[in-house]
Amino acid sequence: MKALILIGGLGTRLRPFTCNTPKPLLPIVNKLFLLYQIELVKKYGIKEVIFCLAYLAHTFENHFGNGSKYGIKIHYVHEQEPRGTGGAIKNAQKYIDGQALIFNGDVLMNIDIETMRRYHVKNKAKVTIALTKVKDPTVYGLVETAKNGQIERFLEKPSWDEVTCNTINAGVYIFEPEVLSLIPPGINYSVERGLFPNLLSKNEKLLGFINTSYWIDIGTIEKYLQVHFDIIDGLVGASIAGRKTGKNIWQGSNSFISKEAVIDGKLVMGNKARIEEFAQINGKVTLGHGVIIRQGAVLSNCVVHDNTEVGEGARLEKCLVGKQCIIETHSVLSPGTALADYSVVKKYSKL
Ligand code: GDD
Ligand code: MG
Hints:
33% strand; alpha/beta
């Protein structure tokens, strides 16, 4: 089975961080998001992955090349202009010669792909969709299933008065190859709004496979922060890079924590990151490579990307800071702040 990853979206809900970097290439606890998906498919013996690209397409090839560095073979398929999830899959048709495992490129989960595949084969499904339960189905694709797993209704982004259950499309599918012939070529087409309702109207076998393991769509700033906290809390089952130097501290190579700094929470530091004296870390904090936290700065529940400097006495709470920013002394970044890459926050600013 080959895997196909849909990674051509604009990532608008994660702006400003996706202005220069596509969503799947954002770091999650100092590791590129896509690497989590690659590790997952490799765990199940998949050796070939097709990347369906549109937005900032060249950046993926620069990072991954032919995939040999990661122990897989990568094929790249570019859309001239974004063709939607269905159009992107259609575009990759020449690589699909059997069952295909298809992923949205922004979901992190611990799904058991082998059990899903066996379920799909045993029940002779045309498409099997992984499902997960959420509190707010209105921002996802709502999926109603019968007791035998057959999907009865697929409704993308329902309004609250259309919500009948809390089960949604987790963004992972197994497709039989012939399904691709039902996707019209050359147009923008969505599997969620077009193909799935179409298969249902034809009474085709569309199955739901309930995933009970961890699942998140990292597509918003709130969720992006959340996945960091969840990984640090060990809820995801993902390994954390770096040396464990304390019960809840992971340090990259050549990183430094002053003996007079106060680490009162869980901390991940990238390579060459530095925390100076009297700085304080509370809650869960991820510092990228080369980040410097100056004297007396206080960070609570934050994610800071590579090579940013947080000045003396600055206070950051529940915020996301892009790469190569300079936050000058005694600035305050309040909860919810999303600071774009390369920003400079002048001293004593309050955001
Ligand atoms: N190549 C390509 N071309 N990829 C695309 C395009 C496109 O035109 N449009 C979207 N994608 C990719 C995105 O990069 C992302 O990885 C994936 O397809 C899904 O797009 P999102 O924009 O993240 O969709 P969503 O989160 O609103 O909804 C989707 O995911 C939910 C689960 O997270 C739907 O599949 C929902 O039904 C589902 O519940
Ligand atoms: Mg999404």
